[in-house]
């Protein structure tokens, strides 16, 4: 009885292993190839549930999404023989599963290394046919399009992959060239800055001179207006004084004498030497005579 149960258990285990090795699934994000004794029997298995001969067939599954390979920075020469350090990357996906498996044995790293070599070779050829300006800004988009088209011809035929895009992350000058270029750039910027400063100082001198001129003109006009206003005021005051004092000339004479006395003797220390019979003291003398008569 125990032996029978053991046989049944072993049979169930074997059956389970056979079933497990007979069924496999492929998702929408994967590509797969069916091998029988190492030979490709089905090179493009669609997504879904599938069956295979257990222990005879083998299924290799690959990533079917767009993958990125980062190519190492390389030194290239332009059409003018100027060196550039170019850092780039490429986007690719598996196109022909059978060719991909044959060329790389299904090793993604191997595929990336092969693609890196082709990307660098393609960049070297494209950059060598263009000037520095065209590579840096002028024709970069055109360069990338031409490179992708040429890569796809070889990559699809030999690697079974499709290159979606190639882009340059960074373009640098070699270290031995960078310092001289930066020094020349600094010199050019210094010269340009000095020119701007000189023009600014010239404009400042002109603005200051114009401002000084306008200030003098404004002050002169203001002084002229003030003098004219003051003259008009003095004329009106004189007219009013004349009209007022003409009504009583004697009072006007008396007022002028009092004003002269006040201005002359404003300080106690003031000394004035005059003839006592001078007209300056006429009102004082008259006041004294009147007092004596009283």
Structure report:
This protein is an alpha+beta fold. It folds into four domains: 2-63, no CATH class; 67-172, Tetrahydropterin Synthase, Chain A, CATH 3.30.479; 189-247; 250-293, no CATH class. The chain has helices spanning 2-20, 97-104, 108-128, 132-138, 140-158, 175-245, 249-264, 282-293; strands at residues 23-26, 30-36, 39-42, 48-51, 57-63, 67-77, 83-94, 161-172. Strands 3-2-5 form a three-stranded antiparallel beta sheet, with helices on one face. The longest helix has 71 residues, at 175-245. It is rod-shaped, with a radius of gyration of 55 Å. The model has no long low-confidence stretch (mean pLDDT 79).
**Strand order, sheet with most strands:** 3-2-5
Number of helices: 8
Termini distance?
A: 177 Å
What gyration radius follows from the Cα positions, in whole Å?
A: 55 Å
CATH architecture of the largest domain: 2-Layer Sandwich
Total strands: the figure is 8
């Amino acid at each position: 009885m125990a032996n029978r149960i053991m046989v049944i258990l072993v049979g169930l285990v074997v059956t389970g292993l056979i079933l497990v090795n007979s069924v496999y699934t492929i998702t929408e994000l994967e590509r797969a190839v069916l091998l029988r004794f190492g030979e490709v029997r089905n090179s493009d298995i669609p997504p879904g549930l599938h069956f295979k001969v257990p222990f005879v067939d083998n299924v290799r599954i690959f990533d079917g999404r767009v993958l990125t390979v980062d190519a190492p920075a390389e030194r290239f020469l332009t059409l003018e023989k100027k060196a550039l350090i170019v850092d780039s990357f490429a986007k690719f996906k598996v196109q022909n599963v059978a060719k991909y498996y044959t060329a790389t044995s299904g090793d993604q790293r191997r595929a990336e290394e092969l693609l890196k070599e082709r990307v660098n070779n393609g960049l070297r050829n494209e950059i060598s046919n263009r000037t520095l300006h065209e590579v840096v800004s002028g024709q970069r988009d055109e360069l990338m399009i031409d490179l992708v088209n040429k890569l796809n011809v070889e990559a699809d035929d030999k690697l079974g992959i499709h290159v979606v895009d190639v882009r340059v992350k960074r373009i640098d000058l070699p270290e031995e060239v960078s310092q001289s270029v930066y020094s020349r750039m600094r010199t050019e910027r210094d010269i340009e800055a000095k020119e701007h400063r000189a023009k600014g100082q010239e404009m400042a001198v002109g603005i200051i001179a114009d401002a000084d001129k306008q200030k003098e003109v404004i002050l002169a006009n203001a002084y002229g207006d003030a003098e004219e206003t003051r003259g008009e005021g003095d004329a009106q005051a004189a007219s009013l004084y004349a009209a007022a004092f003409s009504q009583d000339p004697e009072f006007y004479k008396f007022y002028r004498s009092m004003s002269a006395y006040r201005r002359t003797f404003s300080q106690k220390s003031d000394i004035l030497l005059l003839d006592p019979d001078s007209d300056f003291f006429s009102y004082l003398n008259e006041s004294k005579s009147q007092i004596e008569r009283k």
